[in-house]
Amino acid sequence: MFKKNKEQKNTNEIGFEERERKTPFLGYLLLVAMAIVVLLFGFAVLDDLGNVPQKPEKLSSCSFGYITYGWGDSFRDIAPNRNYYKRDFSLTQIGGDCVFSNIEKKYGIDKIFLEGKLDRKEIADLRNNISEKEFELQRLKQNYQLGLLEKIADVPKGYETENRSAQIQKLENELASLRASLAQKEKKLEPQEKQLQEKYGLLQKEYRSLWRIHDFYVFLLQIILIFPLFFILLKAYFKLSAKNSPYLIIVTFLFVPISIFVVQIVFVYFWGLFLAVILEVIWNFIKEIQILKSLLLYLGMILSALLFGGAVYFLQKKIFNPKRVALRQLRDKKCPNCSFSLRLSKNFCSQCGIKILEKCQKCGQDRYVDLPFCQYCKDKIER
Ligand SMILES: [Zn+2]
Ligand SMILES: [Zn+2]
Asked: What does pTM read for this prediction?
């Protein structure tokens, strides 16, 4: 009874292929889950490896203030990383006294800051004061204009203009004297500034190379952990693929996250090293010429469509290659076109009428149209 049922299923379902049964949905779900878990753990590991070699000491918040807001605009790029302020400066001490790192002490930057501490504080206060007064002045000037307009229009209780004009004059005088004392203070600090710039130039070089060394160690560690896995999987992939093994799909799903890691490791390392700089130069050049920029974006759109479309096309072609389908069907004694059992067919399929057998040109016997060799005389036809 059971056996009969099974046989019925085999012969009645058109296109049913016992050997080619697909991985079930649950199987795919598990494979995807596996790939995601491997990805998550892998990224955590790669990230964590960044902490294994000792990182260069963070620079003080004094340096941060100096480099970011202060006088040292030319030293903004102390580190190659764009998030340098998070990575390179200990910003927790902002507001308090600066805690200088050893590399800053080595170049005597702490001493320079200590010497000029009061002057620097005064300069910062003066700058704040000036920008507040400038804001106030602008507001007054706007009101004054409004008052004048209202006077022309004869508004009875409009803005008063005489008093305001005196206020503006007073504020402008104050600003002038503040600016003068700021200039004086800055002149006083000039020799220190020159020193600082020189020291920061040297510090920048050393600090950068410290990070380069650190990044290189991280890169090595990541390679040592990930690359062997990559090659083992690659080997397993080719081996299983040659055998057409059902376990190939497991290796494939493991191969995807590992490849992502390899790309990430190599890309991140070389990005920090020089790729970012080169791409920025190229992009800046292209940005200047608007039509080039548009063309590039357009090209990017076409390329990504080709890439994704091509990947899907390749997959489909591999799965639905007519030659492979015909071969599979004939192996199972079924019509290559409609899967009807060949037991009931002869030269033509008795269900769909497609040609199954033809006369061999060499020996005259009946050979299969879709197979390369004649089963009687071994005559080969490239199909
Ligand atoms: Zn047929
Ligand atoms: Zn033949």
From this structure: 0.55
